[in-house]
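Expect sequence, tokenised fold; for instance:
***
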Amino acid sequence: MAASRNNVRKRGSTWTYYLYVTDGAGERRQKSKGGFATRKEAETARVEALAALSNGNWVQPDRLTVAEFLTDEWLPTQRPPTLEESTYASYARNIRLHVVPYVGAIRLQQLTPMDLNALYRTLLDSGRRPPGSPVRRHDPAVLDLIARLKGEGHTWQQVADTVAEQFPGLAGITRHAVASAHRRAQEPKPAPKDPGLSNRMVRYVHTIIHAALRDALRWNRVTRNVAAVATPPPQASTRRGRHTTWTGEQLGRFLDFVSDSPYLPAWLFLATCGSRRGEVLG
């Protein structure tokens, strides 16, 4: 008992335990772990560490953060052929945008289920990225001219040429630009988007974290996978609604919009044959 107490010491306001491990070279090295509020907590943790050491399940305490583990250790192992290129890119993007900014600074071994629950709640409430640059809005006189010329039956190229003539500041405007300006002018302003991510997206983020921590457990980086006991949005809440299709009027508007496109035959084929996108593209 005295030996055990000698291996637990107070450092500042917290307690630290010490133990010895044998490294790969056969040398005996001292390891420690601190931050315990009481001597009893440190002694209990030391007993558990000794038991794990004898069973071959001991995890060496370190200061590795969640961000360092995900970006420097885990993601490189997921590159193709482990994952498809698109899946790997999706994992990397979601870790960069939705995980690292929120829990990346936490030490990997100190990450808790409550940290993940707080992350999921934050993403649901306000996880959407701020919008990018606003869409360019043309002068109402330009939009009126575009609408009048198109109503008279001019092609988009003819409309673009006329707009460039009457408004020198728009010299070089393309037929695609005038068509897009006309389409936006006809559409109602969209309702403000929910600032949070969808249940489906947050659960996808959870799936990525769960997979990463499963490997961390397998690699003896952590003693348990805390994502396994966290609470992401339930699976039932992530089901997609029924798909909707365009009406004849909506399809007509789209085909009118792409009437000058070199891909018009492909759009017509896709709209009338019922084939999948991949089948149309060959």
Notes: The longest helix spans residues 199-218. The chain is about 50% helix and 10% strand.
